[in-house]
Amino acid sequence: MLVGLAVLAGQLSIGWQNDALAADRDRQTDRWSKPIVRGLVARSTVAVWAIAAGLACIPLSLASGWRAGLFHLGAVLLALAYNVKLKATVLSVLCYAASFGALPVFIAMGAPRAPFGPWWASVAAAALGVGAHVINALPDRADDLATGTIGLPLRLSVTANARIAGGAFLAAATVLSFGSGALSPLRVVAFSTSATCGLAIAVISARDARLAFRLSLVLACLDVGLLLVFSR
Whole-angstrom Cα distance, residue 91 to residue 151? Predict the structure, then answer.
């Protein structure tokens, strides 16, 4: 439970900090889905809650042990740095990969003798992070280009992003299918399905990048399902 609360506090701090920092940019691009832009909450209030959540994350993380706690806090700090500066650099994708990949390690390190957990869980999570970053950049692509928030996905074409996302999710599915245990019919079917989706993404992306992105979301859902099934 404490692990879940630590992760929740960290994510709240990251999300609220991002909303507070991006308020002016969100107003410029008319992002009316944002509560600050709509006037439902003050920017200063969101900033205060971001700080409060960040402070709460410290003892909650350290409750799993000082090694696990410092590891998780490092991942949270990296995500906060992403919001401040790194999201507009070529290092943006590395922040997602590191933050996603760190979560299984943090969960495992709280166990006795501080193991690092199965390698495949961290590799798959990091690959999911790369794909998530690329997919997440698509809806706001035009607005981010206009405001100068140019992370790695925005420096590449939509077609290239579709292929990267498909490749990342396919890599995650491959690791989850074959790295997490003995070969079984379920793993073969899972890999065959993900490989088919990955191939379709690569072929379709040159003609219809948005359809390729939709297929990437299907593959991402498959990956999450595999992670839940094979990590038991």
Answer: 7
